[in-house]
Structures are given as C-alpha cells and as structure tokens.
Amino acid sequence: MSMLLRLRTGSAAHDAPPDDELLAKWGRQNCILWGRARHADFGPCTHTLSIRAAWGGVESCHVDGRTIGVDDDNFLILNHGRIYSTSIRSEQPVESLAICFSPRLVEQIHFEGRNSQFLEHLRPHDAVVSPLLQSIRQALAQGCEDEAWYDEQLTVLLARMHASQEQLLDQVDQLALIRATTRREVYRRVARATDLLHSNYANGIDLTALAETASMSKYHFLRLFKLVHGLTPHTYLQRKRIGVAVRLLESTRLTVREVANNVGFADDSTLVRQMRRWTRRTPGQVRAGAVTVRLAENYMQAPQ
Fold first, then answer.
1. Fewer CB within 10 A of the terminal residue: the chain, N end or C end?
2. What does DSSP say about strands 66-70 and 59-63: parallel, antiparallel, or unpaired?
3. What is the pairing mode between strands 31-46 and 50-55?
4. What are the residues whose beta carbons fall under 8 Å from the beta carbon of 297, sequence distance 6 or more?
5. Model pTM score
6. Is 53 within 8 Å of 97 (Cβ atoms)?
C-alpha cells in the first residue's frame, strides 16, 4: 500500500524530524509526499526511484553537487539509491509533489523487460506522464485517502514513465550523429547544461558556464545544443523567461517591472519586446486575459 505524507504548510513544513511511521516505511513501500510551503527543507536522505514536480514556484533539488530547480514547466526523475535533499525559498507558497516507488514495484517493472534506469534531468511536462501527476495532485488536494487507488495510479505512472523514457531514447537515437553511444552521451551532457539554464534563468548564464557544465568547448556546445533543442541557448533562455513571466502576470499582482526583474530581463521594455515575440501579446493583455478567465470560472461555479 502507499504511504501518504501531507507536509504542513508554514515555515517549518519540512523541517520537523521524520516520525516513526515514516522511518519504518521509508524505502520499503510506495510513498507520496505533498504539500505547500514558502520555506522548507527535506533531507538529505537516500531515496528509492522517485519523481518530483512543483507548481507556483521553484523547489530546488540538491544532488551530486548540483542544484536542479523543479518548477511548473517540468518534472524530475531520480534513480533508486540516490542521496539528495530539497529546499523551497519563496515569497509565495510552492506546491511540492514527490513520489517514491517501492523497490518491489520497480523490480516488477524491471522483470517485465524494461530498463529500470532513467535519464536524470528535467523533462518538460508531456502528454504521457504529466496528466497522471495532475490527477494524483488533484486527488491529494481534495483530501483523498484511498491508498488502494494511489497504488493503482503509481503502478500506471511508473509504466508511463518507462514509456516516456523509451520515446525519449528513440528521439535521442535519431540525432544526426554517427554512433549511438555518442548520441546518448552528447544528449546527457547537453541535458546537464539545460538543467543549469532552467535552474538559473533569472541570473546571467553565459555560454562559457553552460559549455563547461557539458564538458565541451563553446563551439561544439553551441552546435550540439541547437542539434538537441532546435534553438540556441540564448533563444532557449528567452523562451524560458517568458514562460515564467506569463505565469507571474497571470497569478500575482507584481508590476511589469517587478516581473521583468524576477525572470532576469534588464528592464520592462525587454520583457514587452520578448513577450510580443513569443506570445504575440503584451504583458497587459496577458494579465487582462487571466482576469477574464477567472471571472468566467467564478460565474460558472456560482449557483444559478
């Protein structure tokens, strides 16, 4: 059965020491940790195969000397036996969802002929894994305590994670490089640098730092990053910043200048220019559209 652990909201949501039930079951059965917090720390500890997602802000995962920022755009899979910790530092509550799979379930999938090792990097939300994460998230928010239902969902989720992994490997194997081993190694290095870009988009990330993270020269990194993503690192960064800016405009009362500062643009005029490029809308139009949607939702929910 699955163990559900709802994290307390508040500055000490993750800071309390684990209770006896958690210690007795951690690493032995499916475990779901969910909650909202502005300031939180969890670990470090040894995890089973896990998948993490976050909404409304960034949850930082600290593993192998790296800090990987999980946010609304992506999810992160880490393999069995990983030692890592997580932290949240935010002015707004961040919703955190972590699912750790029991070794028995992982072995069962492995015995069915599926590779039990995953590529460990941020993955954009997709049509395979993400809908089930959202379903589990909604059930938790609604207070569902049916552990048998969660067990079923986690079994399906793990199968979908493997299906997504196979799709990704097929895409990697189609990269225009000669050897399959070269293709996967290049992808792994570029993905590592892409994680750095996602996790530090609000700061100045230059080509040198990205190339060093990928253990490549700047020339080769630029060429291979574009081969993998179809965009240059700078264009990829601008797209990431605009995606976050749209969320902030829709969900907060920050001014356009404050949003620009939060996502790393030098000034609000740069934000306006980039937003028109990527969304064909101005910040004011984005915010007005969000208000219209909320009014329509409130109207539909109101008693008729």
1. C
2. antiparallel
3. unpaired
4. none
5. 0.87
6. yes
